[in-house]
Amino acid sequence: MEKYFKMSYLIDIYSSLLTDKQLKVLEYYYNDDISLSEIASMLNISRQGVYDTLKRAEKIISEYDDKLNLLEKYERNIELIDKLEGLCEDKESLSLIKEIRENL
């Protein structure tokens, strides 16, 4: 999985474990594709401060995922739902699968 996609998923999963500043920096950098210099200007901090915050936040969410494996479990659930969807033929079952997918 490309680093940007993986980090975006990790941000979604572990965002509540980050400070507001860490979350903003990660979202700006990975989700909005904003450069470190632009983020520094937006948050009124140095580019080095943005870089340090980014690296610290990446480390935090990576360590959580190393221990909890929530991204791997999420991906596995999506695979299982895809397989189940392929096996179902009636509209009621497909509707239920769609609801499950939306609530993951």
UniProtKB/TrEMBL annotation:
Note one Pfam family from the annotation. Answer: UPF0122
Per the similarity annotation, which family is this?
Belongs to the UPF0122 family.
Main function: Might take part in the signal recognition particle (SRP) pathway. This is inferred from the conservation of its genetic proximity to ftsY/ffh. May be a regulatory protein.
**What's this protein's name?**
UPF0122 protein ANASTE_02294
Among InterPro entries, the record links this protein to: RNA_pol_sigma_r3/r4-like, UPF0122, UPF0122_fam_protein, WH-like_DNA-bd_sf
* PANTHER family registered for this protein in UniProt: UPF0122 PROTEIN CBO2450/CLC_2298, UPF0122 PROTEIN YLXM
Superkingdom of this protein's organism: Bacteria
